[in-house]
Amino acid sequence: MTNHHDTLRTGLVTAAFCIVALPGLAHAEELRFATPPWPGATVKTEVASQLLERLGYQTSVKEASTAIILEGLVGGDIDVDMALWRPSQGGMLDPRLESGELVELVHNIQGARFRLAVPGHAREAGVRSMADLAKHAERFDHRLYGIEPGNVGNEIMQRAIEDDTYGLGDWQVVASSVTGMLSQLEANNDSDRWTAFLGWEPHWMNVAYDVHYLEDPEGLWGDASTVSTVASTEFVERAPNVTTFLEQMIVPIEVQNAWVHEFSREDRPLREVASDWLDTNPELVGKWLEGVSTANGTPQNLESP
């Protein structure tokens, strides 16, 4: 994927705009977001949070693992999670949907990917499927690199090892962080040392590195991925205005790739990335806000200088 940040700005209306938060809303009810520590989810949540603040809401964002976030949603400590991946995390979510405790509002990103990947030099040497890993075990040092402990991707890889799927019974999962995993990938970026790692899109890794996602004949990773916005049922019932916005906030995959590239690769401050994007993309923001009012129930006040 290429960085589409500049392209995204081309062709937009030239007049800047702002959403004026009306006075007297300092005591508005707080909207409690949570996000796993993934750059794409972090920026997406910040964009939503800032946009709602411009409408006069108070927001907070907590960072935690998906398992902890789901418990917080059920327990009433968290209102919204915008980073639930399907199908890989469906097993964690579906029982809570079936019980009526949570609501899946929208697939906010479609065409995403989340599965085991290798760099280009490993693919050129014939590693195109998870079934090809075992015969090159020494090159990979019998290791699969994941991210934070408890992540469902790590668990999928661990189950493959425990079940000796694809002959991976003597391998191990190295749980780290996104930064640690990608540092390992960069350190092994030559033809002698190979890295099998948890990859996903949208993410800047797809721009910065030659990433190739492995075929999965046994279907461990499920079908094509989507990313969902999930909220507690209680929140949906008490915050219909915000729910309407969340249902309409669908992010083109190239937009989130650009967000992640700016935040993680270019090291721009999170709030700046989100704020600048909101200021320069009125058309998409307008679609997200159709039928949505300010926190005190008045129509949005969009101004052009």
Automatic annotation (TrEMBL):
Domain called ABC-type glycine betaine transport system substrate-binding: residue spans: 30-279
Pfam families documented for this protein: OpuAC
Protein name (Swiss-Prot/TrEMBL): ABC transporter substrate-binding protein
